Amino acid sequence: MVDDDLKRVSREEAIALCLKFYLPLEPCVRGHLSKRRTNNNQCTECLSIHKAKFRNLNRKRLREEHRKWSRANRDHINDYKKKRWAQKNEINQKLRNEEKRNRIAARDAAIANGSKYYFDGRPCNSGHIAGRYVSTGHCVECGRERCSQYAESHREQCRNRQRRNYKKRSVLGTDWRQRNRERVRTKERARYAINPQKHINKVKDYYQVNKERIKAERKQEYYAYEQNDPIFRAKAAKRVRKWAAANPERVKTNAAKSRIRRKRLELDALGTFTAADVRAILKAQRHRCAYCKKSIKKNYVMDHIIPLARSGTNDRKNMQATCAPCNLRKHARDPLDFARSLGMLL
Asked: What is the pLDDT of residues 108-151, one digit of tens each?
C-alpha cells in the first residue's frame, strides 16, 4: 500500500532530507510501488513477503523460541500486564466521572439547543442504552419497539394508509433529498461501511431484474460519447478531473502501471517500422487522418490498426496515421467496430 504521508522522491533526495522511508519514482523488480527503506533501498512489500514466507517455513521453531522466552521472562510479563491493567482502570474511572458530569447537563443542554433528543448514557428500564426524548425523557428505542408492535397488530390499516399517502410522501421525500443531498450521502456511506456485502448483493439483484434497461441506457450514453455530444463529454471530463484531484497518488500509480504495460506489449510485439515507413504512410494517406480525413501535416499519431492489446504487430502493414482525437477514441477497440461507430461501414 502507498503511504499518503510520504512523497515520491529519488533515493538521493530522501538521504538529503534524512528520511527513514521514501516512495520511489519507479517500481521494484517485482513491480511494487510501495515505500522503501532509505538506508538499503529495500522494498517494504518484498520484505513483508519474505517475512511471511520465513514464518511459514519456521513456524514450529519460532513458536518454541517464543515459549522459552515467555518462561524465562514470566515475572517481567506479569509486571507489564499489571501496569497495563492499572492504566486501563485509571482511564475507565476518568471516563465514568466525565460521563457522570455530562449526564447531568445533557438534558439541560439539549433544551437550550432546541434539540429533540438527548443522551445521558444510562440504560432505560428495558436495558436500552439509547437516546431519550427531551419532552418526556422516554427511551427512543422503546418507542420504536412500541411502533413495531402496533404495526404488526394493525398491519392492514397501516398498509391502507401508506397506499393513500404514497404519492404525497414520494414527492416530499424527493424534495427533502434534493435539499439535504450531502446529509443523505453521508448516511448512505456510513450504512454501506457497516455491511458492504449486503449493499453489493442488493445492487447485483437490481441489475439482474433491470438488466435490459440498464444495458440500453449504457449503450445510449456510449453512442452519445462516440458522436461527440458536448454535454456528455463535458460531464465525463468533469467526473474524471474531480476523481483525479481527489486521488493524485492513484493517478500516478495507474499512469506508471500503464507505461509498464505498454512497454511490455511493444517489446512482445513482432515486427518493426522505420521513419521511411512513416513518411511513406503519410504520403499514401495524403497527410490526412485515416478516419476523420482532417489534415495531419502538423500533428499526427501513428496508430496500430489492430491494437497491441489484441495481439497486433509493429509491422508497417499494421500502422496508419491518425489525428490525436481519433486515436484516443479508438483506444484498444476492434478497427471494424470503431469504423462502424463512425458510420464508415454497414
From this structure: 778 888 788 888 777 888 888 888 888 888 888 898 888 888 88
Do the beta carbons of residue 310 and residue 333 sit within 8 Å?
no
- Angstrom distance (rounded) from CA 169 to CA 157: 17
Distance CA 229, CA 209 (A): 30
Contact 312, 306 (CB under 8 A): yes
Give one word for 141, left, alpha or beta, with left for phi > 0 and alpha for psi -120 to 50.
alpha
Q: In this predicted model, what pLDDT tens digit does every residue of 231-285 receive, in sequence order?
A: 777 787 888 899 999 998 888 888 888 877 777 777 777 888 888 888 899 999 9
Place of cell 437550550: 112
8-state DSSP, 37:
E
Taking CA atoms, 161 is separated from 150, 152, 165, 222, in Å, by 14, 14, 6, 43
Q: Report how far residue 144's alpha carbon sits from residue 126's, in angstroms, rounded to the nearest whole number.
A: 13
For residue 128, the tally of other CB atoms under 10 A from its CB is 16
Cα–Cα dist 234/141, whole Å:
48
The alpha helices in the chain, defined as continuous H runs, are 11-16, 44-57, 59-72, 74-113, 140-153, 155-164, 166-179, 181-194, 196-209, 211-226, 230-246, 248-268, 275-284, 324-330, 335-341
Confidence of residue 5 (pLDDT cuts 50, 70, 90): low
What pairing do the DSSP bridges indicate for beta strands 301-304 and 117-118? unpaired
CA distance 200 to 209: 15
Whole-model pTM: value is 0.33
Residue 116 and residue 102: Cα distance in Å, rounded? 18
Residue 257 φ then ψ, to 5°: -60, -40
CATH architecture of 253-341: 3-Layer(aba) Sandwich (3.40)
Rounded to whole angstroms, the Cα distance separating 142 from 125 reads: 9
